[in-house]
Write a structure and sequence with these properties.
Blueprint (H helix, E strand, L loop, with lengths): L7 E10 L2 E6 L10 E2 L2 E3 L6 H13 L3 E13 L4 E10 L12 E5 L14 H15 L1
Parallel strand pairs: 1-6
Antiparallel strand pairs: 1-2, 1-4, 2-3, 2-7, 5-6
Bound molecules: 8-OXO-2'-deoxyguanosine-5'-triphosphate.
The site of 8-OXO-2'-deoxyguanosine-5'-triphosphate (8DG) has 12 residues, from strand 1 and strand 4.
GO molecular function, one term: hydrolase activity
Catalytic activity: 8-oxo-dGTP + H2O = 8-oxo-dGMP + diphosphate + H(+)
Cofactor: Mg(2+)
Length: 138
């Protein structure tokens, strides 16, 4: 599926390993710096969500990911001219994620998801992720 229509898409990867999800602290812009998000970014014209996630995770973390199911629903961003969609993902190999663009990376267990301040749009997605993560670590 391509990126059609006027609503711009931002995609994020909820990378899960050993029952924890990778959370990333933004380094910019100033109003978002120190807030936490899923690695990802804007889907380019004609690009699929999955291709955008693979590209962004290489750029931001230096890793190759495999993309899985959606987490929660699309969340409107800002003035409503964009939406955020998040997908489960896994690392394809042993290469460890590095904060090439983020201020900090943390692997969070389900009971640690509230220990960081997420970007506002991520809050409902994190709520949808919690039971999924908990089911992995059971
Ligand atoms: N990557 C990411 N962006 C998010 C999340 N939640 C959220 O509100 N956003 C917002 C922050 C930004 O306004 C926008 C993504 O923009 P970005 O700057 O990360 O995208 P990009 O890497 O494609 O950036 P650029 O090429 O425009 O510099 O979406 C999230 O979980 N992950």
């Amino acid at each position: 599926m391509g990126n059609q229509g006027s609503t711009r898409r931002v995609v994020g990867a909820a990378i899960v390993e050993a029952g924890r999800v990778l959370a990333c602290a933004r380094s910019s812009p100033p109003e978002a710096a120190g807030k936490w998000e899923f690695p990802g970014g804007k889907v380019e014209t004609g690009e699929s969500d999955v291709a955008a996630l693979i590209r962004e995770c290489e750029e931001e973390l230096g890793v190759r990911i495999e993309v899985g199911d959606r987490v929660g629903h699309d969340v409107p961003l800002g003035r409503g001219d964009a939406v955020l969609g998040v997908y489960l993902a896994r690392l394809r190999d042993e290469v460890r994620p590095r904060p090439l663009e983020h201020a900090e990376l943390r692997w969070l267990a389900p009971d640690e998801l509230d220990t960081v301040t997420w970007l506002p749009a991520d809050v409902p997605i994190v709520a949808a992720l919690r039971p999924i993560l908990a089911s992995y670590s059971r």
